[in-house]
TrEMBL record:
GO terms for molecular function: acyltransferase activity, transferring groups other than amino-acyl groups. It comes from Maribacter cobaltidurans. This is GNAT family N-acetyltransferase. Residues 1-134 form the N-acetyltransferase domain. Coiled coil: none annotated. It comes from the Bacteria.
């Protein structure tokens, strides 16, 4: 799979389609999108999966991991997580974390991430903060 660096704006349509289709497009735009690194996988010039990485000091958060339904369970999300982990290793990042939907937490555990005791609700969905030490 070929992973490309993209602009934040490139990720907005897939974020919206996959994560929050019932809400306005602005809901998937992040205040600090311009400060992030954004990556995507394309099939036939169409974006099928994306992730955004935000680095602060020796800690990084990945956000907005989204894969179109027809490309789920084909390794796209795994490839993107492994890619951001590699970026973090190269940048000497010590901690990688994310806000995981509780029903998806097991997926992130496959990448060495562990649930913290921090939970929150957003737009009616329950999230847990997960982290991994690199």
């Amino acid at each position: 799979m070929l992973i490309k660096s993209v602009s934040a704006e490139t990720t907005w349509p897939i974020r919206h389609e996959v994560m929050w289709p019932e809400l306005p497009m602005d809901f998937v735009k992040l205040e600090n999108d311009s400060k992030g690194k954004h990556y995507a996988i394309f099939v036939n010039d169409n974006i099928v999966s994306c992730i955004s990485l935000f680095i602060e000091g020796d800690s990084a958060q990945f956000r907005k991991l989204a894969t179109t339904p027809q490309h789920q369970r084909k390794g796209c999300a795994s490839a993107l997580i492994n890619h951001v982990k590699m970026v973090c290793y190269q940048d000497n990042i010590k901690r990688l974390w994310c806000n995981a939907r509780v029903d998806k937490a097991n997926f992130y555990e496959n990448f060495g991430m562990a649930k913290t005791n921090k939970f929150f609700t957003k737009a009616g969905l329950e999230f847990v903060i997960m982290e991994g030490i690199l």
